[in-house]
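Question: what's this shape?

___
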Amino acid sequence: MTDALGGATSTHWLARLATRAKWANAEAITVPQATGIADVWAAVTRTCGVSDDQLVAELAKSYRLQPARWDTVEPQATKLVPERLARRHHVFPLREDYRTIYVATSDPNDMAAEQEIGFSSGRKPLFVVATPHAIATSIEAGYAGLLTANTLVQAAGADLENAVRVAEQAAPEAVKAEEAAAAPVVALANLILRDGVASRASDIHIEPGRQSGHVRFRVDGVMREYLQLAMPVFNRVVSRIKVMGGLDIADRMRPQDGRARILLPDGHAIDLRLSTVPTRESEKAVIRLLDSSSSRTLADAGLSADALARLRRLIAHRDGIVLLTGPTGSGKTTTLYGAIRELCDGQVNIMTIEDPVEYEVPGITQIQVETKRGVTFASALRAVLRQDPDIVFVGEIRDGETATTAAHAALTGHLVLSTLHTNDAIGVIARLADLGLDRATIATSLRGVVAQRLLRKLCDCAASVTGELTPEEARLSTLTGVRPVKRVRGCDKCAQTGYFGRLPVAEVFMVSTAIEPLIATDQPATVIAARAHAEGMRTLPDVAIDLVAQGLTTLDEAERVIGISERVAALARTKVLIADDDPVIRAIAARVLEDEGYEVEQVADGESALARASSATPPDVVILDINMPKLDGRHVLAKLRSAPATQRLPVLILTASEDESLEAELMDEGADDYLRKPLEPARFTARIRAVLRRTRMR
């Protein structure tokens, strides 16, 4: 039996590597095959008088691997490789790029490690070489957050029973003392809440498993492991949380929701929104942490100057609908509350309808949705309109009834603020239409839309990017045209994640007098988007790329949250090349296509058309006049169809000829379509779209 170095496995492979490298005293290394890699490594460096770096370099060369680059470590990679696996195989995950996970090892022969890492991470493992000491140190630091309950409570060394104090709660159910009121359970629950607040968590997840329960914090939008609990302890902690929220601890078969408020030792108040659901194993509890003392305005929200100015213009309207869109946890509610605080000047009547009411704002009327009592968004909105409001905040437009009522309110002199779930700002138009609003109503009632996401902000410990980019950085950099300035490193402040805090990314769509008729006449989203861009709207990728260029976040983070690679590709405008020697025809065709959102380039002869179509960045569609100087359209078509690179390039032929047989001839020669002059705009653009559809189906 032999290993990758071609030697018999009766002696340790690392000793044979030293012999092959012709290092001094290599033959004197005598270690059993089963010796641990750290001990063999030390024996080789000591006996042969070589440094760790020399051994890493030789090992990397022999196995055609790369040495580990510790300056590119991404702490989130540890989430993909369990600690037990890392310790068992003495490996450490350095970074991942959604396809590959780079893993530091001192033993490239460990095929079992490669298989287990691939199965665990869902990525293709790629080994890089590092010293055993570096790997061991990284394991201790990288997995330091995964502690047991006893370790945490003992390490806290504080009066945990008084670490937090319940300020408000419903009358608790009668419970067994050992179930929820025992001092250790209270101490542990308080510890979880205290550390959740200290970690800047937005949510605390208390999740059951078969053998044990887990506590995880959502920090800066990403789940982070915190604590592992034995199931008996886990169940008591969930019961304690339910008591705090005034929930029925005896009922473990139905979902329950509750609220509580805790006071920290410094007097800081935190509102808790509690939710429990039954699972196959036990109950899962989620605690949303809301800082009740926070009074952020729009100026504090962190929006770019351009987005802030455009949003303020939207909420300055006396009537109409202003919507915020984005997934859960994208900061929509925070931005809307900032807008409400800015509008609340004592001179207007502001009423809100929420499910649930997240923040109490002095000077406004807030209504809680209670579906069981018949208080829905739609019914509450109808009632609110009889209360003489100036501004109405509806937590979410979920159905056609609410959408219709909101539009009616907007058209009768009220400013309506609300949220909706779509991928981008322009998508709101189609969503409102799906909810039953006609296009004319949408056009006259909608004032604008803000699509928002939150990107994690790089911690102050971030490293400057020098030298080569990682494969994923290089891919995204090529796609977006921006080179990252900094990358994650990790420190105690950011819990080794490399990020601290979040930044809003906002796409602000304003319905102008030019856009309103486009909506009313049911123009395609691409046409509306093109007009909005021309009027200054910046897309989510645009804003995210700016933040990367400023060194505030990373391309990986923008890809994770926004999917910039997909969005940049989707936002790329279809390029059309028009080749015609008549400048009037070119101008008419260009204007029609540009109004439809296409990017148009013009040339006046066949040779220029052929050169442009055969370039490294060809157009998506070519329109050729059949009669042109230098090279006519038929010859250009023939050359395009004879070249492998342009065989499938869509080509339309323009002609003033009335010859009916010419169309069949041109189609036989490879034209995708045929149009007669003069051009009719609607038919012209319809044929362009049809050709593009057929091309995508090939």
In short: Residues 307 and 508 are 6 Å apart (CA to CA).
